[in-house]
Amino acid sequence: MTTMRAVVLDGPGPVAALQLREVPIPEPRPGWVRIRVEAFGLNRSEQHLRTGMASNPVFPIIPGIEATGTVDLAPGGEFEAGQPVVAMMGGMGRAYDGGYAEYTVVPASNVTPVRTSLDWATLGALPEMLQTAHGSLHTGLAIQPGQSFLVRGGTSSVGVAAAVLAKEHGLEVFATTRNPARLDTLRDLGVDHPLVDDGSIAARVREIRPEGVHAALELVGTNTLPDTLRATGRHGTVCFTGMLSDQWTIPDFYPMDYLPNGVRLTAYGGESSDLPQADLQRYLELIEAGKLPVRIHQVFALAQIREAHQLMEDGGAIGKLVVRVRD
């Protein structure tokens, strides 16, 4: 076999721009690993690539900033063939071809071996979701047990993961959703204080916790960031990680006027190294034991990539959208 199925993007466009094609199976050079892809999760950054919002992409390209599967070939000897692995970030799907394919070739440094009994669809939901949530909580916010934590955009895949990981770490969790019908979903995930987000939730947060929360994760964008800052207490920290609203920048930013007194603002946009193998393995074991819930909204086939992207663009998912590459 010399060819594979892959989703190719020749340039920015609507979901129809995602083309399922037969392309040559890529060959890895030393220091790179070829993965036989079993599943991958969809990410908002891949929507940004498709719609032309990403900076400096290479076209044509196979999108996908993550993949799960088994090692097919590692000419440098870093991994044995058949080893289950996950791969993420490091230029995948932007600087070089990514995970929307039956095989992908990535730098060995982007590959993490795993031991798990989870099915491929579940494992496919996890790498980037856990990496972003873990990095935001520990690198961006430096959370500690006993603190209070707000996630703005709580029914997004990263929002769900952040809420669940924060509860596992011993925090009191607030989480927002724009849809009142999703409040019970947040409660089922263990969220202490689900809130309907009408654009202004700081007052309601402070009705529950008058001094404000210790830490907050902003996943919606700069349009809700000022309100998230107001919900955060003095010496608390807000981490800006996501732009679900596609509003990225702050016009005429004046820190003295924008930032509440004593509230810190950080950001997170890390790499696979921010989720050490030991932490990833611990999370997988907790998920296997039923102690760490994972919310998968829907699993698609590779041929359904346009349908999956449309659902992501419409904001209709609660949790992760996953593509299962092989039958």
Automatic annotation (TrEMBL):
GO terms for molecular function: NADPH binding; oxidoreductase activity, acting on NAD(P)H. InterPro entries: ADH-like_N, ER, GroES-like_sf, NAD(P)-bd_dom_sf. It comes from the Bacteria. Pfam families: ADH_N, ADH_zinc_N_2. The keyword Oxidoreductase applies. Keywords: NADP, Oxidoreductase. The keyword Oxidoreductase applies. SUPFAM superfamilies: GroES-like (SSF50129), NAD(P)-binding Rossmann-fold domains (SSF51735). Signal peptide: none annotated. Residues 13-323 form the Enoyl reductase (ER) domain. This is NADPH:quinone reductase-like Zn-dependent oxidoreductase.
